[in-house]
Amino acid sequence: MTKKLKVLVIRFSSIGDIVLTTPVLRCINSQLNVSIDFLTKDKYKPLLASNTDIEKLILLSNNISQTIKVLRANKYDMVIDLHSNLRSFRIRKALNTQFFTISRFSLKRFILIYFGVDLLKNHIVDRYFETVKSIGVYNDNKGISYNLNPTTKVDFNIDQDYIAWVIGGSYETKKLSRKQIEDVISKLDIPVVLIGGTSENKIADLIINSLFDKKIYNFCGMISLDQSALLIKHSKLVLTNDTGMMHISSAFSIPIISFWGCTKPSLGFSPYMPKSKFKNLISKISKKPCSKHGQYCNYFKDGCVKSISAEKIYSTIKKLLK
Questions:
Q1: Which of 37, 79, 85, 266 is the most buried (most CB within 10 A)?
Q2: For the chain, what percent of residues have pLDDT higher than 70?
Q3: Burial 199-218 (b: 16+ CB within 10 A, else e)
Q4: 163-321: same fold as 5-135?
Q5: pLDDT tens for each residue of 134-158
Q6: Is domain 5-135 given the CATH code 2.40.128.50 in the classification?
Q7: Which residues contact 66 (CB under 8 A, 6 or more apart)?
Q8: What topology does CATH give the domain 163-321?
Q9: How far out from the chain centre does Cα 189 lie?
Q10: Strands (DSSP E) along the chain, which ranges?
């Protein structure tokens, strides 16, 4: 039997970007005779801890020289760099082996953001696959993989009908407002679970207090990524800002409604090959993105995503729940 090649895949961050590597990991593992190690940051370990396509998950040390020492000992035959920054360049150079690096398309992204001309015309997952095309890896078109830990549980009845609403986001400018959320939930006759980080916990409580006659459950900052994924997987529908949980949602057979303002699907980060119905609700203020990651808005201080009407969100919910 031919000896398996040892492959190192690099992607340091963030939640969505790492989740979006899973189709490539699956295809590399199934199509080549290789053993895959994955290098990322410690805080993203839960995302890949149960991924069956990875042999070993290696965590980036604060001391990059120490990380390089660990990696050298593994004697990799190939490095696939899906991050492509100065740190990953230093690691590639130190390992001194065959490598493949993703193209960042910085100029095309600049033209899209500042001039509104879309020369990208593909998803980031397609760019990942372009990186490994020359070694014979092709897209199996099975979408995102997310392996839940079989021991993961949450203190909530997941057998009932409910909606999961991801109210978090990396920047305020990427989040729907409290008023938008309240106006929609006030019309709903189905329980809603609110998912986000600790920074959304207070807003979630305010929503619950404002709509005291509705069944709303606050899980913001109280549960793990895997528990959040479990709630999403068993929901009837997920509503989500442009955030990492949106990409996890694409792994499950549930309808998705995603909200876009400062970022746009044209940047290549829309839900990838969702396994059910989906709808991207995009602010009509502008057709071009305001910024790469949504950290600022050209039109409103708190983000043009807040211009999406509650009526539009509610009518879309009704259509997807039919």
A1: 79
A2: 100
A3: ebbebbeebbeebeebebbb
A4: yes
A5: 999 999 999 999 999 999 999 999 9
A6: no
A7: none
A8: Rossmann fold (3.40.50)
A9: 29
A10: 5-10, 34-40, 56-59, 78-81, 98-101, 163-166, 192-195, 216-218, 237-241, 256-260, 278-282
Which tokens hold the place of 180?
Answer: 């938008």
* Sheet of strand 163-166: strand arrangement: 216-218, 192-195, 163-166, 237-241, 256-260, 278-282
Start-end of H helices in 225-298: 225-233, 244-249
Largest CA distance in the chain: 65
Q: Is the pLDDT reported for residue 1 higher than 70? A: no
C-beta separation of 5 from 36 below 8 A: no
- In the block, tokens 């009932």 appear at 160
Report the 10 Å Cβ neighbour count for 243.
27
Q: Where are the domains of the chain?
A: 5-135, 163-321
172 vs 243: CA distance, rounded Å:
12
Tell me the Ramachandran region of residue 221: left when phi exceeds 0, alpha when psi lies from -120 to 50, beta otherwise. Answer: left
Q: At 296, is the pLDDT very low, low, confident or very high (cuts 50, 70, 90)?
A: very high
Do 274 and 256 meet the contact criterion of CB atoms below 8 Å apart? Answer: yes
Question: Binning pLDDT at 50, 70 and 90, where does residue 69 land?
Answer: very high
254 with 146: CB under 8 angstroms?
Answer: no
Please measure the distance between the N-terminal and C-terminal CA atoms of the chain and give it in whole angstroms: 53
